[in-house]
Amino acid sequence: MDATLYYPNIEFYDSTWLKASLLIYDKIFRIVPRSYSPDDSDEVKVAVDKNLLEDIHVTQPDLETTAEEYEQFLSSAPVLPAAVEGYDNVRLHEEKVDDRIRPILEALSTKIDPDGFLSVSPEVANTYMLYLANVVSRRRGITKLTDNPDMFSVMHYFANNGNFGEWINNPDSKEVAVSFLIPYILPKSTEFLSINEIIKFRDKTQSSREAFKRSLDDFIDKASHVDDLDFLKKHTDEFINKIEKGRDNIADRTKEFAKDIIYSLISVGLPTTFTALSIFSAGSDLFDLFSVGKSCSIGAVASIADTARSIRKEWKSSDSFYYLQLKKVFGDKTGVKFSTRNYHRIFEEFIND
After folding, report:
1. With a cut of 50, which residues of the chain have pLDDT below it?
2. pTM (2 decimals)?
3. Which of 63, 56, 61 is nearest to 3 (CA)?
4. In what order do the strands lie in the sheet with 117-120?
5. Quick check: 108 and 120 in contact, CB under 8 A?
6. Contact (CB, 8 A) for 62 and 29
7. Cα–Cα–Cα angle for 212, 215, 217, nearest 5°?
8. In whole angstroms, what is the distance from residue 44 CA to residue 101 CA?
9. Predicted pLDDT of residue 48
10. Is 267:180 a contact under the CB 8 Å cutoff?
11. pLDDT per residue over 145-184, tens digit each?
12. Cα four-point dihedral sign 285, 295, 138, 38
């Protein structure tokens, strides 16, 4: 089963985004307290009934692991983000918090309401929820997926164990956290198709989806360990060629179902070496998007502070995290151009502002 964990929210505020995600993944999980009933739309309820969207009720080992690691994380991180000092309040349910860590969050909260929600700043709540999502996904060996570019940017911090300094653009750093931007084909009519029609389309494109994800996992495993830019381009071209030239490729199967197709954008976060991105060192901005190989782009999010604490060599495809972007801007004959958020600016705001 090819599954992913949706973070950091419970409800889906855009059913089109959920339907698009189900055209990529076999199943989507989300973290839901046992005593909480999600306020789902009718289409989301169908996905639940069809077992395509499944709730994860965090276990005591989940909470204990999160509490132990989060407590240690807060005390050992090279830089404690300024974002955890936020002021406007949101609610964080107590069932998502272990007894060990609750005093820390209670100390940062302004009140606890009768329903068991801690009232804390959105930055504090999201910081904890991102860490919890990281633990839950790691313990189950599944990737992470969000519809929020801010959360995708900040996840780099937790996915790399907070191994960053205040100066996120450090030219002396040997490694950087990056985002790969990969185009993905979807039916243009996704927004107007019912969830049941999406499910039928899923059945018809299962083999092409599986082939895409296998190629993507293989590409990520290689990209995070390659130290040479030319080989990185080579792996990127191999990845795209597998998708385009496969006997059951995504474009052909999508055209069978829908008259018009569109390109969505998948951003993949992972650590890589500064050497692999050495092309940027020739007077270019490390954070500018750079076309690497065929159709894909890459951009730095932040410099990793301490190579000795690096997790890059142990990185697996299941450790990666994604942001699915549906907004698109079509370019000329040379290809497709996308308007994307500057992840590094979001990350710097999280660290320093």
Report:
1. 87-90, 98-108, 110-112, 282-283, 329-336
2. 0.83
3. 56
4. 90-93, 117-120, 111-112
5. yes
6. no
7. 105
8. 32
9. 95
10. yes
11. 999 888 899 899 989 988 998 888 887 788 999 999 888 8
12. positive
Residues 6 or more apart from 334 whose CB is under 8 A from it? none
With b for 16 or more beta-carbon neighbours within 10 A and e for fewer, the 7-45 pattern comes to bbbbebeebbbbbbbbbbbebbbbbbbeebebebbebbe
Give the Cα separation of 274 and 97 in Å (integer): 37
In the numeric block, which tokens belong to residue 227?
């130290």
Q: List, in order, residues 6 or more apart from 238 with CB less than 8 Å away.
A: 219
Two structure tokens written together for 124? 């504090």
